[in-house]
Design goal:
The chain is mostly helical and 90 residues long. It has one helix and no strands. The longest helix is centred in the middle third of the chain and has 52 residues. This is Heat shock factor binding protein 1-domain-containing protein.
Length: 90
Amino acid sequence: MSTSTPTSTTAATAPTTTKPSTESMATPTELATLVDDLLTSLGTKFQGVSKEIYDKLDVMGRRLDVLEVDLGRVRERGSTGEAGERGEKA
């Protein structure tokens, strides 16, 4: 059985930083435009999602109103002693 020990000869090197070329740097005006476009896009998406949520809440509210009316009718029938709903005899 042979064992080998790895020999590492890597020296610690300082991280190299490179400055972006002036061609790839955006001007403050370009950055402001990009940020403005991004904020406009996010605002539009937020408005769309908000509308969807409000629409769904409206639908849920209407369904709850219908359910409340139906439950009221069931209670009225139960309190008047109508037979047949739960298999009761009159």
